[in-house]
């Protein structure tokens, strides 16, 4: 039988950019027998896609907390949009599309319920702090598969850890996801805010829309094309100065009008209180933690605070609210 994987690996050296990561050179902490069909990065993509943490993203907030209507983004749809944008850029620049997709699908796998409000409160109350990108590494290395982890390649884990703009991934594919994340969330959050009646196109800064476009489609097209043209045959993933300046200006506008103090954030303090009360409840009642989280303490020597944080941070919006009601809201008497 022909080894499909080896043929794909050979083709990567023929077709991909010299700056692209090659599957044959992928590194895992624990060596594995290679697949006959899938490359190392394809296997990583599939492991993330089939993980429990990935499935839970469908019920985690992006910006609008537990929206009643179906068309608002969740953390999962955000992830899929980042993946689509990143794959488009990677294919155009002849980078490794499989590695790009794996990083994109996993980049937010460590996010909490209730979006950044959940992340902020766990960072405040957990010794050592909390960030969703570092938690993403804990998820894929320690928490998935009942404590066994997914044994992802170093390149995918690097992309997950370093997808925020304050960090820089080691691979070009990671850099593509890092840029695509910003392109995706700014534009789809504008789309959702317009749907919610919080913003209108006319409210967006004209110096930004003049450069980027007057609707979501045109802005996405401008940004993606600019990244491709600016980064063509270069060892960096960048935008041209006018386009990047307009994007940062638009991001600043979104922080002022949506991410901080808008009606979309009116329930954030309640959401924070839910996670805070759950966290301290499990610290005071450690016997209620699921077995795999207790094993972190008994077998790995980690703290109860970290175990409680891991459990609470993995909850979806709906499950966190459900557990809160069970634990803290009196049930009606049933005859």
Structure, described:
The chain is mainly alpha-helical. The chain has a single domain, classed as Hypothetical protein af1432 (Orthogonal Bundle). Helices cover 61% and strands 0% of the residues. Helix 5 crosses helix 8, helix 5 (97-106) crosses helix 9 and helix 9 (172-195) runs antiparallel to helix 11 (216-231). The radius of gyration is 21 Å and the shape is flat. The termini are far apart. The model has no long low-confidence stretch (mean pLDDT 94).
Question: Low-confidence runs (pLDDT<50, min 5 residues)?
Answer: none
Nearest-integer average pLDDT: 94
Query: Which structural class matches the secondary elements?
Result: mainly alpha
Number of domains: 1
How many beta-strand runs? 0
The percent range for helix content is: 55-70%
Q: Name the beta content range.
A: under 5%
Shape: flat
Order of helices and strands: HHHHHHHHHHHHHHHH
CATH topology: Hypothetical protein af1432
Distance between the termini: 68 Å
Total of helices: 16
CATH architecture: Orthogonal Bundle
Specify the CATH class: Mainly Alpha
The Rg value, from CA coordinates, equals 21 Å
What is the topology?
Elements: H1 4-15, H2 40-49, H3 52-56, H4 75-92, H5 97-106, H6 115-125, H7 132-147, H8 154-161, H9 172-195, H10 206-212, H11 216-231, H12 241-259, H13 268-284, H14 291-300, H15 304-313, H16 317-328
Helix pairs in contact: 2-5, 4-5, 4-9, 4-11, 5-8, 5-9, 6-13, 8-9, 9-11, 9-12, 10-12, 13-15, 13-16, 14-15
């Amino acid at each position: 039988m022909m080894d499909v994987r080896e043929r794909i690996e050979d083709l990567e050296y023929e077709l991909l950019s010299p700056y692209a990561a090659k599957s044959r050179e992928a590194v895992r902490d624990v060596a594995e027998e290679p697949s006959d069909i899938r490359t190392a990065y394809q296997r990583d993509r599939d492991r993330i896609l089939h993980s429990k943490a990935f499935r839970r993203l469908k019920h985690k907030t992006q910006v609008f907390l537990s929206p009643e209507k179906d068309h608002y983004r969740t953390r999962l749809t955000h992830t899929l949009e980042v993946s689509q944008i990143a794959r488009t850029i990677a294919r155009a620049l002849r980078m490794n599309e499989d590695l790009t997709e794996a990083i994109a699908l996993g980049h937010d796998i460590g996010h909490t319920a209730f979006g950044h409000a959940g992340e902020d409160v766990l960072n405040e109350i957990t010794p050592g702090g909390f960030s969703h990108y570092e938690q993403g590494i804990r998820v894929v290395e320690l928490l998935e598969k009942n404590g066994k982890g997914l044994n992802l390649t170093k390149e995918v884990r690097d992309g997950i850890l370093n997808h925020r703009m304050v960090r820089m991934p080691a691979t070009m594919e990671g850099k593509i996801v890092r840029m695509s994340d910003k392109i995706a969330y700014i534009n789809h959050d504008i789309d959702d805010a317009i749907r919610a009646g919080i913003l209108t196109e006319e409210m967006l800064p004209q110096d930004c829309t003049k450069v980027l476009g007057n609707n979501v489609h045109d802005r996405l097209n401008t940004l993606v094309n600019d990244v491709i043209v600016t980064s063509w045959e270069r060892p960096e993933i960048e935008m041209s100065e006018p386009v990047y300046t307009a994007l940062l200006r638009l991001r600043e506008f979104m922080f002022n009008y949506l991410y901080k103090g808008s009606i979309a954030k009116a329930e954030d303090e309640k959401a924070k209180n839910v996670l805070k009360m759950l966290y301290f409840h499990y610290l005071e009642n450690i016997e209620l933690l699921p077995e795999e989280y207790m094993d972190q303490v008994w077998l790995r020597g980690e703290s109860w605070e970290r175990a409680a944080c891991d459990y609470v941070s993995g909850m979806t919006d709906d499950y966190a609210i459900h557990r809160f009601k069970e634990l803290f809201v009196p049930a009606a008497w049933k005859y």
